[in-house]
Automatic annotation (TrEMBL):
NCBIfam families listed in its UniProt record: ispD
Organism placement in taxonomy: Bacteria, Pseudomonadati, Pseudomonadota, Betaproteobacteria, Rhodocyclales
Name of the featured protein: 2-C-methyl-D-erythritol 4-phosphate cytidylyltransferase
Similarity-based family: Belongs to the IspD/TarI cytidylyltransferase family. IspD subfamily.
Pathway of action: Isoprenoid biosynthesis; isopentenyl diphosphate biosynthesis via DXP pathway; isopentenyl diphosphate from 1-deoxy-D-xylulose 5-phosphate: step 2/6
C-alpha cells in the first residue's frame, strides 16, 4: 500500500508597510547584520529539510524585492506579488496563488517576515509536535508578567489572571484546505489560529521562546540584532 506524505510549504507575508516602525522603508527591508531583515527568516525556512517551497507574499507594487540578490537562498524561494490590505488578506492571496501546487492536506507554515530570529529548532519542533495532529497549531510562549486591564484614563481597571494565557508567535502551521477555508470565512483576524478557532477548531500550542520576537518598534530591531549575534551564548 502506498503511504501519503503531506508536503510542507512556507508562506511568508511581507506586504506590510511597517507603520509602527516609522522608518523610511518597510521594516522587512531594513538592514539587520548586513542583510535585509526578511533574509534571516527566509534563510532558515529555505534550509529546513522538511520544507519543500518558501513563498514570500509581497505587495503588488513592491519595488524593493528586485533590488536585492536572493540567489544564495536556493531554488525553494518563490516571490508572489499578491499582498493585500491586511496580513490575513496577504496570507489568503498566497494560499490562492499556490492552489495549483498544494494538495488539500499539505501543511502550510505561515511565518511573519518581521520575525527575523526564527531558528531551525523552532521549525523542527513545530513540525515534529504537529505531525500527527488533526488540526495543526502554532508556536507560542506562556505569559510571564502580571497582566492589567486599563480603563479609558489608563488607570488599572482589573488584574487579569494570566493562568493559561499564551502569546502567539509564528510559524503557525495548518493544512492547506482547512486554512484557506478558515481565512475565507473569517473577518478581521490577526493570525491564522484565530481563523481556525473561528471555524470551531482548537489549534495546539507548541512552546517556543522569547527570542522569536516580532520586530514592531525601533527597539525591537536592536533586540533582534543582539539575539542573532549572541544566540549561542544564551542557550536559545
Ligand atoms: N497588509 C499586510 C500587512 C502585514 N503583512 C505582514 O504581516 C507581518 C506581521 O505584521 P505587522 O508586524 O503588523 O507588520 P506591518 O503591517 O508591516 O506593521 P505595522 O502594523 O506597524 O504597519 C509582517 O511580516 C508584514 O509584512 C502583510 O503581509 N500584509
Ligand atoms: C501573527 C502574529 O505575529 C502573532 O503574534 C501577530 O498577530 C501579527 O502581528 P499584527 O501586528 O497583529 O499584524
Amino acid at each position: 500500500m502506498q503511504t501519503f506524505h503531506p508536503r510542507h510549504f512556507a508562506i511568508v507575508p511581507a506586504a506590510g508597510s511597517g507603520s509602527r516602525m516609522g522608518a523610511s522603508r518597510p521594516k522587512q527591508y531594513l538592514p539587520l547584520l548586513g542583510r535585509p531583515l526578511i533574509h534571516h527568516a527566509l534563510s532558515v525556512l529555505c534550509e529546513a529539510p522538511d520544507i519543500d517551497r518558501v513563498f514570500v507574499v509581497l505587495s503588488i507594487d513592491d519595488t524593493e524585492w528586485a533590488r536585492h540578490d536572493w540567489r544564495g537562498l536556493g531554488g525553494k524561494l518563490v516571490p508572489l506579488f499578491c499582498g493585500g490590505a491586511t496580513r490575513a488578506d496577504s496570507v489568503l492571496g498566497g494560499l490562492r496563488a499556490i492552489a495549483g501546487e498544494a494538495s488539500p492536506s499539505d501543511w502550510v507554515l505561515v511565518h511573519d517576515a518581521a520575525r527575523p530570529c526564527l531558528a531551525p529548532w523552532h521549525v523542527d519542533k513545530l513540525i515534529r509536535e504537529l505531525a500527527g495532529d488533526e488540526v495543526g497549531g502554532l508556536l507560542a510562549v506562556p505569559v510571564a508578567d502580571t497582566l492589567k486591564r486599563a480603563d479609558a484614563q489608563r488607570h488599572v481597571a482589573a488584574t487579569v489572571p494570566r493562568d493559561s494565557l499564551w502569546q502567539a508567535q509564528t510559524p503557525q502551521m495548518f493544512r492547506y484546505v482547512m486554512l484557506r477555508r478558515a481565512l475565507e470565512g473569517a473577518s478581521a483576524v490577526t493570525d491564522e489560529s484565530s481563523a481556525i478557532e473561528a471555524a470551531g477548531l482548537r489549534p495546539r500550542l507548541v512552546q517556543g521562546d522569547a527570542t522569536n520576537l516580532k520586530v514592531t518598534y525601533p527597539l525591537d530591531l536592536h533586540l533582534a540584532e543582539w539575539i542573532l549575534t549572541n544566540r549561542e551564548g544564551i542557550g536559545a
